[in-house]
Amino acid sequence: MDLIGKLEAENGKRALPPVHIGDTVEVHYLIREGDKERVQLFIGTIIADRGRGIRRNIIVRRIVQGEGVERTFPLHSPRVKDVVVTRRGEVRRAKLYFLRDRVGKQTRLKELLGEKVRREREFDKAMRAATAAEAPAEPAAPAPNEKKVTAKV
């Protein structure tokens, strides 16, 4: 395994919640006020998802007093205590930047219900299982009819 992969494996969180674009989430974020720390909720809609592995970030948008507020949360950060999905949004885009131009009721997304939610949960479960099985403990031995190629440096 490469060095970056090892660092990601030991420093990243073991399990992340299955979040998707369009979901309404509560991000439990640890903030420091003076010498005290407390958990603050940031409730909004996920409009973008970036990065892979330990570098994965989500951008969450909400409206506060008529003004749009967006925050980027690194999912593997120790400051992000929990991400709770409260509502599943049905979307057809990978990025929801068009919500920046909308106000009021226009910012609402259709909710995923019933069979679609079940299918998404099964897909998430399969993806997590595939990711866990992706990291083999030992390198696979070459098949007897394959030649082993080594490069001299």
General description of the model:
- With 153 residues, the chain is α+β, with helices and mostly antiparallel strands.
- It has one domain: Roll (SH3 type barrels).
- A five-stranded antiparallel sheet has the order 4-3-2-1-5, with no helix packed on it.
- Strand 2 and strand 3 form a beta hairpin.
- The mean pLDDT is 82.
Unreliable stretches: none
The CATH architecture? Roll
- Number of distinct beta strands: 5
* Helical fraction: 10-25%
- The strand line-up of the biggest sheet is 4-3-2-1-5
- In terms of structural class, how would the helical and strand content be classed? alpha+beta
Q: Largest sheet, described in full?
A: 5 strands, antiparallel
Cα distance, first to last residue? Answer: 20 Å
User: What's the CATH class label?
Assistant: Mainly Beta
What share of the residues does DSSP label as strand, in percent? 25-35%
Q: What would the principal axes of the Cα set say about the shape?
A: globular
CATH topology: SH3 type barrels
* SSE order, one letter for each helix or strand: HEEEEEH
**What would the average pLDDT be, to the nearest integer?**
82
* Domain module count: 1
- Number of H- or I-type helical stretches: 2
Radius of gyration: 20 Å
